[in-house]
Amino acid sequence: LIKRSFSTTTARNVINNVTVIGGGLMGSGIAQVSAQSGNTVTLVEVNSDLLKKAQSSIANNLSRVAKKLHKDDPNAAQKFVEETRSRIRGATDPTEAVQDADLVVEAIVENIKIKHDLFKALDKAAPVKTLFASNTSSLSIGEIASVVNRKDRFGGLHFFNPVPVMKLLEIVKIPEQSEETYQAFLSWGKSIGKSCVTCKDTPGFIVNRLLVPYIAEAIRMLERGEASPRDIDTAMKLGAGYPMGPIELADYVGHDTISFIMDGWHQKFPDNPLFKPSVSMKKLVEEKKLGVKSGEGYYKYNK
Ligand code: 3HC
Prior knowledge:
The chain is α/β, with parallel strands linked by helices. Helices cover 50% and strands 12% of the residues.
């Protein structure tokens, strides 16, 4: 009876207060788009320096959005930035930050042990109503959720970089996830302006399962000396209509991230040739040439 009375109309208002754990590229983007659409947001980082860095990156990205929204009205643009920023509160204690959360989105380092420690603590600290989600790119949602009691209120909410621009949100189901939770994720995703797709908890979900092997093959093509980085990128932009070529995209996402994904999958599925780690990418990571964020990857960038 209770289940039936929980309509999607009710679900629309379930999530208004969001806690985002991790203020990196993804976490600050998630905090930004949540606040832009009216949610109250608590953004958690490990210390106040990192929190400041995240807040200033949000301010920069909000100005870009504001310029677009209010092209001819600088006052309205400024008001938009200020109002959105005022909805984002910073915090350094994750358990304190979830006290009144409707939804927690975790976007911290891709380490299962650290995620487990975090979610164990959050499960104790958060109210019963709080839904939990992970923005992991490559780890299993079920494995992350294994340490919490609220598996019915757990799922993957996977965003794409740059979060304020990319329209997609992948909603990842696990078998224990309730229909109410799924509907709440879906309504919230739509309310923050994303188009949602739903998928099972498999390596890479939909996008990364296709994108990462594609990038890896482009890099193998480069390693085999079959074409230059510039020509591979131009080919895929002009021949397949992609906004960025695969080598540019690898630099954009970061070689640390892509290597981490490939290594994890390779360990789990050693016989799958699509997941074979790339030699040249490993070398770049060792040399700390991580791509755009470090100033150099396969290409060089002005920092
Ligand atoms: N915040 C706000 N706005 C931003 C932004 C940001 N961080 N980055 C770009 N924009 C806006 C710009 O203001 C601009 O707006 P306008 O067209 O209205 O003026 C628009 O986006 C386009 O930006 P630019 O003109 O600077 O540059 P491009 O036209 O080259 O677009 C791009 C940049 C949107 C990044 C485009 O190249 C693109 O879509 N690239 C592919 C990105 C992609 O594939 N992402 C997915 C990576 S995989 C992933 O994230 C999964 C993870 O798990 C690994």
